Amino acid sequence: MKIGIIGYGVRISGMADIMLKLDMGVEIAAITDLNTAKVKQNLDRNGIKTENISFYEDADAMLDKEMLDGVMIGTRCSQHAKMAIKVLARNIPLFLEKPVATNMEELLLLKSISEKSKAEAVVSFPLRVTPLAKLAKEIILSGKLGTIEHVQAVNNVPYGGIYYHNWYRDENETGGLFLQKATHDFDYINFLLDLNPALICAMKSKQIFAGNKPEGLYCKDCDKNETCPEGPFAMKHIKFDNANGDMCCFAKDTGNEDSGSALIKYETGMHVSYSQNFFARKEAASRGARLFGYNGTLEFDWYKDELKVFMHNTPRVETYKIDSAKMSHGGGDDALALNFIRVLQRREQSVAPIEAGLLSVLMCIKAKVSSQTNTFQEISWGK
């Protein structure tokens, strides 16, 4: 099975590596990227031979010339929808990074094209297919909790500095942090509830990563770089050799909110509260949810690799430990890679279909609009 890759970035190269290691007949046949030299270096570093790979700088040229069984898209976020439209219009199976779009115009166009396409897409939503989420779904479906009538979900990100030091700080690229992070969380919540979201209101704040440092300032040029809590002596992810990163997160041109929250009403009338934070650090990290039924409460956290069930009518607490800490995205990436291969083989349907990606982005865009206008927003394709 010959795979083409559009945008050989860190994320998609990792997914491609997982697929190759599964040794199920997949090979990289072609790559479209604007920096071919860097791509070849990364391929060599990953032990992937380049002599049988064709390189392009234009996606259309690759898609028109190569006979591909599938395509993986790992460009910057603002290009996801544009590239996905090209692939799905040609009826080629697709692995698409999240968010599937960053604005409403491209989201609607992608939705229209995907509905006409004969090809399936697997969206990069690893959380919904982790062992932890699968166990939560199994317990919910068992009925022991009763009907889920309330959810409290959180995402306290311990590595949030990446959204202010490098290209992620550009909201024209990211669309904001609802689209960067909440897109995952909204999706796994939708997956667990199996309900349609109907209404959303949201709020966001920028209280920490703001300041009066000069625009365009790099950490290496700052006289505070040895004492700054977000500088290279404190944060391991900062590297002065990164041409696209290491910019001051307290400068005037630093984008992105640093916390955000949303309330989501579902079709049954129940609601979800969700909150994300980007200046939590170390053991303050948390990502997961509490789901409340009348008979019991289920709680899980990917950072703890643990799920608990609190029964309401009997003094019993069930604790499940999940051994996935060393797996990529808690084991979700392995599941997505295997599923994409089986989609190519026509043995399975997508476990993270394009419809889920479209709905998640719709929710994120509506949340962003709500936070900007102080309004409730209907989650509807018609409005």
Number of strands: 15
Shape: globular
Poorly predicted runs are: none
* Class by alpha and beta content: alpha/beta
Number of helical regions = 11
Provide a concise account of the structure shown.
With 383 residues, the protein is of the alpha/beta class. Helix content is 32%, strand content 21%.
Structural account:
The protein is α/β, with parallel strands linked by helices and 383 residues long. Helix content is 32%, strand content 21%. It contains 11 helices and 15 strands. It has helices at 10-21, 36-45, 59-65, 80-89, 104-116, 131-142, 162-165, 171-174, 177-193, 332-344, 354-373; strands at 2-6, 27-32, 54-56, 70-73, 94-96, 121-123, 150-156, 197-205, 259-266, 271-277, 286-292, 296-301, 306-311, 317-321, 377-378. A 9-stranded mixed beta sheet has the order 14-13-12-11-7-10-9-8-15. Strand 11 and strand 12 (296-301) form a beta hairpin. Helix 6 runs parallel beside helix 9 and helix 9 (177-193) packs across helix 11. The longest helix is centred in the C-terminal third of the chain and has 20 residues, at 354-373. The chain is globular, with a radius of gyration of 21 Å. The two termini are 41 Å apart. The mean pLDDT is 94.
Could you list some keywords that capture this structure?
6-stranded parallel sheet; globular; 15 strands; 383 residues; 11 helices; alpha/beta
